[in-house]
Prior knowledge:
- The structure holds 2 protein chains of 2 kinds.
- Chain A is 30% helix and 22% strand.
- Chain A is of the alpha+beta class.
- In chain A, strand 5, helix 7 (196-212) and strand 6 form a beta-alpha-beta unit.
- In chain A, helix 3 crosses helix 4.
- The longest helix of chain A is centred in the middle third of the chain and has 17 residues, at 196-212.
- By secondary structure, chain B is an alpha/beta fold.
- In chain B, 36% of the residues lie in helices and 22% in strands.
- Chain B has 11 helices and 15 strands.
- Chain B has a 3-stranded mixed sheet. Chain B has a 3-stranded mixed sheet with strand order 2-3-4.
- In chain B, strand 6, helix 4 and strand 7 form a beta-alpha-beta unit.
- Classes of the chains: A alpha+beta, B alpha/beta.
- Chain A binds chain B through residues 90, 92-93, 96, 100, 107-111, and chain B through 8-9, 187-189, 207-208.
Amino acid sequence: LKRNRAAAKSKKPTTTSTAIEKPEKKNKNKKKQEEEEEEVIDEVVEYSDDMDSDDDDDDDEENMFDDDDDDPDKYETVDIEFCVDQPAEKDYHGVKTFLKQLLPSVKLFANDLADIIIAQTNVGNTIRIEDNEELFGYTTVISLNKHKNITSIKQLISAISSGFGSHRAMMKGILESPTTGLLISQRMVNVPYQIIPPVYRAVLTSIDTLSSQKNTDFKFENYLVITTYQKSVSKKPTIPSKKKAKTEPSEDIIYINAEDQFLRKVAKLEFTYQIQRGEEKQRWTLGGVMSTYALIMVIPASSIPS
Amino acid sequence: MAVRAQFENSSEIGVFSKLTNAYCLVAYGGSENFKVFENELSDHIPVVYTTIAGCRIIGRLTVGNKRGLLLPNTTTEQEMLHIRNTLPDSIVVQRIEERLSALGNVVCTNDHVALVHPDIDKETEEIIADVLGVEVFRQTIAGNPLVGSYAAISNQGGLVHPMTSLEDQKELSSLLQVPLVAGTVNRGSDVIGGGMSVNDWSAFVGLDTTATEISVIESIFKLNGAVPTNIVNRMRNSLIDNLHQ
């Protein structure tokens, strides 16, 4: 899987920024992963790490440059400028579409939650492109206690409660606490990871501002995150491959949201369970067979900025 | 009256159903929310559950009115037999060979007039005129040839794509001989034909439809406090009896 994607996407950017890449390659900036990456890549490519230069709270610029050595007919390069913006009424259908994919095993009645998200303009940010109608992503925090009676929240909670197991008592406490916020963050596939820090910063800053103004709705001690990841199913379920999976867990897992792998590290509590998307337990992709897992994390509010 | 419904979490009612004055086709698998069709209509007209070519998007593949029903060439024999058997004999069911086989998207009809995609075959136009008993006009709506997708009409009125110019609206209104209004359904969606199903006395729209959109729909299709005519007729008989007494 990695080899195919590396060969397909190898480019030599001439100046700033990094190319738009698939999720697992987002690890490439972390030193641990770099060696593994370079073994796999057929052409050695030098990338300039330029994550911070273009960072702005309001926009994030991505530039990709043509590589003459690569087949120029294969890939077009696109200059895209993403904007971090406030939710608006026009985002209703976009948010609703995203919400339906939040937990694929649940047929979420997303209308009410989408209404709440777009109405909450003081907390929550959307990722848009100028002059483009489509919503490319959004991040927001909903007060679980305030909205616990709406259909979609009830559906989500009953869906995740199947995976509580031994943590039932603790989860119950968290779900009923008035200081728990549901952190929802969704983006279209391949929206570059560089957009994540500005969006999160914007949301957390709004929350800080509101909570310092003694707005009790937004005083959060814990964030509940409901998300999914995909894991490749080993084709030969023998003991050697199981061992391999244990020593290099991150290789097998593809996170739908790149930030999840970091959130996992600071999570107070996390649990996962396999979910089925309709009829299929596993999905065939170019590289192998994937199965989807739900990942539920409880993160103390103080840990997120780090 | 206009009723809100959902098909398996989708607001696109006009995709999964085909509603006419004489019958209603509904797709399988809609769960509780789609029973609303049965609940509202089954006292007055037959409600037929079916697929077309194994697909559930029956509203976009078929076109019909009180006289007939036209099916695409992809319809299987079994499906056609099932539909023929369940519908009253007075309704002509015919399968047509047409390159533009998504008939629900290319034809928009009521019991008297039909608008069709400018590129459909001459034979198809003739079959439509013959089976459905309507006058056929080749038209576009807001510059878009998919007239079945961007408009919904009944014998009382019609709703068209929000970007339809006033002159176009006037022209279409004079062809169709019904009042038209440009508007949206399902909270701002401009695909009217896919978003709703309507006949002379009832309309079904998606759950997302706002109250404003519903009031526009109820007013243009004259659905306010509407009752099916056969019920009115039954009532009229007993009412008149009472008068004479």
